[in-house]
Each structure stands twice: as structure tokens, then as C-alpha cells.
Write a structure and sequence with these properties.
21% strand, 357 residues, globular, alpha/beta, 11 strands, 9 helices
């Protein structure tokens, strides 16, 4: 999942889903009452955000790279007792290990302090953010474990989403279908919006979320990527934004989280609530020839796909394809009460296009 999409808050059996938390984490989003839409990205970042941009640039200058793994893998790696304190930047900003001042360049520690992300830890420090890389771009997101209600997700779902999104964008360009206006719904740290903006530099790209922390980090990450055509805005799904779109993309929360944390709770039956709500909205908000690209997770039951059954009637009048792109994600969730009757959780990809006429 990606960050904080929005609404759908039916309490069906609850439990967790993708994004992250402790040893079990994951990613859907959710929130209670939604604030009204706020204006677009500020022209001048506040001092801590400015320092965070400079920190990202400093990390990029070192050649920093880190691939974020699942919470279960992260927990196993971090549990190794021979490596408690950070030894390099990947330990500090990737594995969320505590560090002592001599483990990082002094300039980087100063920028961390100026950005407000250097948290005192015993006789050292701990970063409250991680930095992950995707396609050569650096993205700040929440440190491990992502147990806070407003945590900002980045993980294996992000990489799968990005890979599928790049493929579809290449197909759209090959078909000569221009993207003038696009939205990444539940943008989180902003990787989806960035991928669209990089592929479609002429497009106006909206990165939509309801999580203030996610919006702040998305603005920082867009500046790090040098993307001036991304506008970060607050919106519950598409409810607070007007107009039609040539492209709508989303990687919403799709699990059931007992605490209903915004970044991982999808609501509805087995976490499908947000994804279904988005499809309903997108069907009426696509411009002629416009396309919805949705990455979500489905709890399969008795060899059946309940999401496909529920979404099919919502796609009337659209041309669409649906594929399973990973048959088994977040298998540890099957041990939780909400998924006791599920066989597996699969990652799926839905492409739906409104006819030109």
C-alpha cells in the first residue's frame, strides 16, 4: 500500500494488512473525520523540511542506496545481536539502528538535528525517518517499526506498484495517449506521483492524501526528485478535488488493522473497502479515454477472489483488465483472527479505461 488513501471505514472483522508496524506491519490507511481540502504545496518549505531536503541531497551525494524489505524480514535482520549499533548510513537510515555520533559524518548529523529527526537514544541517536531508494530516487518515510497511526509507508508493495506503473505508462505513451492531468490517490511518500511525473513531465500531477505527515514528506521527496509538476494536496480519495483525470493511480491500504491505523487499514470486508470506494469514484471522474491503475491486495477465500466479484459490477461501461501479480504477500496475516478463513493474500492489478466516446 502506499500511504493514506481515505475513507472506507466499515468495521468488518479487523486485523492487519500491509504496510508496517512491529514485526508485523503493512500498509493500509484510514482516518476518522476528514479535514477540508488544503491548498497545494507551499512555495517555501518550513525550516525543518528545508533541512530534510538538504539531508536527502547529502545522502544522494554519498551514493546512498537502500531497498526496504517486509516488516518480518526487517525484524529478523534487526534481531541479530552482533550488530546492535549502526556502522554505516544504511544502518542508520535503512535498518533504523541506533547510532553514535562518530558513525555518521558531522554534517549529516547536523542536518538530522536541524530537520528534527535525530532522536536521543541511550548514549547515541536514532533516526525517526528511513530513506529508501527506487529507480534512483530517494524517498523519506517512517522509521521501523511503523506503529504510529500516522506512519508513512514504503515497502515491497511500493516496488511492485512502481514496476507495474512504469509498464503501463510505457504502454500509454506507445499508444500516443497523452496524460494532461493525473492523480495519485493515497500518495503517501509520493513514489507513484513521482513515477507518473517523471514519465509525463507535461502533466499536472496531484499527490493526494489525508495524512499531514505523508503530505510533508511527499513535498520533500518531490523536491529531492526535482519535480515541479507535482502538487501535494489533502483529499479523502477524490472527494476534495474537482475535475476529471486522464490518469488515476493508487496503491491504497488493503488490510484489516485492529487499531485502524491510517496507513494500513482498508476497511470493508477483508480490507477491500477503500479500493472499492476508489473504483466507484474513478468510474465517474475519468476523462474520455482516461485510465485507472489500481494496485491492491485481496484475501482469497476457498479458491475465490471476493474483490473481483465485488468490483466487476462497478466497472460497467469501462474497458478493463485484471491480473494477479503476486500470489502470496503478507502471509503472516493469515495467523490473525480476521484472516482465519482466508487461503492467502494476493497482490492484484486492475486497469480500467473509459471509452473515448
Amino acid at each position: 500500500m502506499n500511504a493514506t488513501a481515505s475513507t472506507a471505514k466499515q468495521a468488518a472483522p479487523r486485523e492487519a494488512g500491509p504496510r508496517e508496524a512491529g514485526p508485523r506491519e503493512a500498509a493500509p490507511r484510514e482516518a476518522g473525520p476528514r479535514p477540508a481540502a488544503s491548498p497545494s504545496s507551499p512555495a517555501r518549505p518550513e525550516p525543518q523540511s528545508r533541512a530534510l531536503v538538504e539531508l536527502g541531497q547529502a545522502l544522494q551525494a554519498t551514493g546512498y542506496r537502500f531497498t526496504t524489505v517486509t516488516p518480518a524480514t526487517h525484524s529478523r535482520v534487526k534481531a541479530r545481536t552482533d550488530h546492535v549499533w549502526a556502522r554505516d548510513l544504511a544502518d542508520v537510515f535503512g535498518w533504523s539502528r541506533p547510532f553514535q555520533a562518530d558513525a555518521v559524518p558531522a554534517a549529516i548529523l547536523r542536518l538530522m538535528q536541524a530537520a528534527g529527526i535525530a532522536q536521543p537514544h541511550r548514549d547515541g541517536w536514532r533516526s525517526t525517518l528511513r530513506a529508501s531508494t527506487l529507480d534512483g530516487q530517494l524517498y523519506f518515510h517512517s522509521a521501523y517499526p511503523t506503529s504510529d497511526a500516522d506512519a508513512v509507508f514504503f515497502g515491497p508493495d511500493t516496488y511492485r506498484f512502481g514496476r507495474a506503473l512504469r509498464r503501463e505508462l510505457a504502454d500509454l505513451q506507445a499508444a500516443g495517449r497523452p496524460v494532461r492531468r493525473a492523480a495519485d490517490v493515497g500518495a503517501g511518500a509520493g513514489p507513484g506521483a513521482a513515477i507518473v511525473a517523471l514519465a509525463c513531465p507535461q502533466a499536472e500531477v496531484l499527490a493526494l492524501d489525508i495524512n499531514d505527515k505523508a503530505m510533508r514528506l511527499a513535498r520533500v521527496n518531490m523536491e529531492l526528485a526535482g519535480l515541479a509538476n507535482v502538487d501535494v494536496r489533502r483529499s479523502d480519495l477524490l472527494n476534495d478535488i474537482d475535475g476529471e483525470f486522464d490518469l488515476i493511480v493508487s496503491n491504497p491500504p488493503y488490510l484489516l488493522d485492529p487499531s485502524e491505523r491510517a496507513y494500513r487499514h482498508g476497511g470493508g470486508e477483508l480490507g477491500a473497502g477503500l479500493s472499492l470506494d476508489l473504483v466507484k469514484q474513478a468510474a465517474t471522474r475519468l476523462a474520455p479515454g482516461g485510465t485507472l491503475l489500481l494496485y491492491t491486495g485481496v484475501a482469497m477465500r476457498h479458491n475465490r477472489d471476493p474483490f473481483l466479484q465485488a468490483v466487476t459490477p462497478l466497472l460497467a461501461g469501462l474497458t478493463w483488465t485484471y491480473e494477479e501479480i503476486d500470489p502470496d504477500v503478507f502471509g503472516e496475516e493469515l495467523d490473525t483472527p480476521a484472516y482465519q478463513d482466508s487461503d492467502r493474500i494476493a497482490a492484484v492489478w486492475l486497469k480500467a479505461t473509459r471509452p473515448q466516446h
